[in-house]
Amino acid sequence: MLSSPWLTTLFRTMVGLVFIYASIDKIADPAYFAGTIQNYQLIPVSIINIVAITLPWLELLCGVLLLTGVLHRSASLIITFLIIVFIIAISSAIFRGLDIECGCYGSGISADWKRIVEDFFLLAFSLQILFYPESKLALGNIWKKK
C-alpha cells in the first residue's frame, strides 16, 4: 500500500460513499433486509431483526465519518471488520449453493463472485485508510491541529 494522503483521501471518499449508499435501502426497508439476512442461514433467527435494524445505521455512521474525515481511522476499522464478515457470508452462500440476493445495495443484486471481488477492493481501500490514516480535506485534521 502507498503512503499518500491524497490516495487515502480518495479511498476514504469512495468507501464512505459506498457505505452511505448501501445503508439507504436497508434503513428504508428493514423488514426486507431482515429477510435477506435470514436467507444466508448464518445467524440465529432471534437476532436477525436486531442486525437488520442496527447494521445499516452503523454503515451510515461509518460512511459519514469516512466522508467527513472525522474519526476516519476508527470508522475504517469497523468497516474492515464488516467487509471481512461480508466476504465470509457471501463465500459461504456461494459454496453452499444458495441463490440469494447479497443485501448489499437493496434488492436485485446477487450474492456472487462479483460481490466478493468488489468487497476485496473495498477491503484494500479500507486497510489503506486504517494503516495510512494521514488524509487531506478531513474535518478531523482541524481538531488535531489545536
Topology:
Layout: H1 5-28, H2 30-39, H3 45-68, H4 72-95, H5 113-131, H6 139-144
What is the count of β-strands? Answer: 0
Give the helices and strands as they follow along the chain: HHHHHH
Strand content: under 5%
- Determine the N-to-C terminus distance: 29 Å
Global morphology: globular
Count of spatially separate domains: 1
- The percent of residues in helical segments reads over 70%
Instruction: Tell me the number of helical segments per DSSP (H or I, 4 or more residues long).
Output: 6
Protein architecture, described:
The chain has 146 residues and is mostly helical. The chain has one domain. The protein is 73% helix and 0% strand. It contains six helices and no strands. The relative contact order is 0.20.
Keywords for this entry:
0% strand, 146 residues, globular, single chain, mainly alpha
Structure summarized in a few sentences:
With 146 residues, this protein is mainly α. It is built from six helices and no strands.
